[in-house]
Amino acid sequence: MSVEAAPGVVEGLDAWRSLSARQQPAWPDQDALAAVGRELAALPPLVFAGEADVLTGRLAAAARGEAFVLQGGDCAETFAEATADTIRNKIKTILQMAVVLTYGASLPVVKMGRMAGQYAKPRSADLEERDGVTLPAYRGDAINGHDFTPDARVPDPRRLVEAYHRSAATLNLIRAFTTGGFADLRRVHEWNRGFTANPAYSAYEQVAGEIDRAMRFMAACGADFDSLRSVEFFASHEALLLDYERPLTRIDSRTGTPYDCSAHFLWIGERTRQLDGAHVDFLSRVRNPIGVKLGPTTTADDAFALMDKLNPNEQPGRLTFITRMGAGRIREALPSLVEKVHASGRPVTWVCDPMHGNTISSASGYKTRRLTDVLDEVRGFFEVHRAVGSVPGGLHVELTGDDVTEVLGGSEEIDEDALSRRYETLVDPRLNHQQSLEMAFQVAEMIQGI
Ligand SMILES: O=C[C@H](O)[C@H](O)COP(=O)(O)O
Ligand SMILES: C=C(OP(=O)(O)O)C(=O)O
């Protein structure tokens, strides 16, 4: 793997610089930004291009219905929360969900964190106003601070370097947890049994009991559980800040082609997927598997134009469409899109993000979501794909492994009054540990058609 930034080595890698890039911070000091770019370019890549290729293969399998994708993690990671406990709880939650989904789908689950780099957010408004004071909006820890003070809100490019180091530390711990015995299937199953033992979740006992019997059957057959102590786990984030992604793009020494080595998988957000924009151009030139978020106004022509630009060679697994329509719209907005793409025979992995189309404000002013809406969107996703004959390939979820109170509902019935108890997200509401597991059990049933 070459470690230089490869400026100009591959023609066009910097073409994005002359295109319109939405949602970029107003960096006050361009020289400081350029110096940070040079510093990042000299730092080691965070992932190996070969790992990204493995993921492309896994996503191709998901598109064929031979695997199911689970992508989850914070809306916005924060530097303060890049701690061992928080990372462990998130990994634990994703592993627990994956076991349930593996059982439900009878398929391998491709595990991907919105982790180790999810430090920048697109925002609806550039400015935030509180009590007559107006400041730049918080855009994620890679850009500015959340404190509502003029100093904190100034975009500071040194934060990009901090984001790199926090991502490196997070990835290091993820690798340790997922290969060092923490992910042992028997252990993860025991955690799930603990969850269903709680009377609040007794509705899920049946599925947990079935998994238990399957485990005992495997043991009786002499399954090698030691070979199930490690799991594959991939890192992903929104490729929003091109001043971060570009210096972390390296030329793969095996193939001489560029990979964005800030993560295995990068996605383009609903707000930055303009065909003639900088984000689409930049990601069209790297070889990682990539995703594009598609909201309810997306037309089939948009989808085809994105496929032309981002996957002209029709490589299976290269392009994932992450649909986020909203529970109220998915059944009318998704069918024509899926029908036309499916009829074209061109390879796309379809993943459902049931979070971003279902955001509401509580009476007390909290940005929240209802678990019932989230689950209804997933149900709509399966219905549409089943009706069309295409493959519902996975889930993309904002979640945390902690006991926060940000999303309404669930068996523990978080209501509007409870939101204030532990509302900790800095941007969008996340499912907490229990709600995430409930979702996994319910989705397992949806997959089985129960
Ligand atoms: O996560 C998605 C967006 O960044 C977020 O929903 C935008 O939030 P805002 O409308 O509060 O800016
Ligand atoms: C901003 C996000 O989503 P979307 O682009 O779908 O709004 C996100 O996933 O953090």
Automatic annotation (TrEMBL):
It catalyses: D-erythrose 4-phosphate + phosphoenolpyruvate + H2O = 7-phospho-2-dehydro-3-deoxy-D-arabino-heptonate + phosphate. It is an enzyme of class 2 (transferase). Its cofactor is Mn(2+); Co(2+); Cd(2+). Binds 1 divalent cation per subunit. The enzyme is active with manganese, cobalt or cadmium ions. GO terms for molecular function: 3-deoxy-7-phosphoheptulonate synthase activity. Pfam families: DAHP_synth_2 (PF01474). Keywords: Amino-acid biosynthesis, Aromatic amino acid biosynthesis, Cadmium, Cobalt, Manganese, Transferase. It comes from Actinotalea fermentans. Signal peptide: none annotated. This is Phospho-2-dehydro-3-deoxyheptonate aldolase. Pathway: Metabolic intermediate biosynthesis; chorismate biosynthesis; chorismate from D-erythrose 4-phosphate and phosphoenolpyruvate: step 1/7. Its EC number is 2.5.1.54.
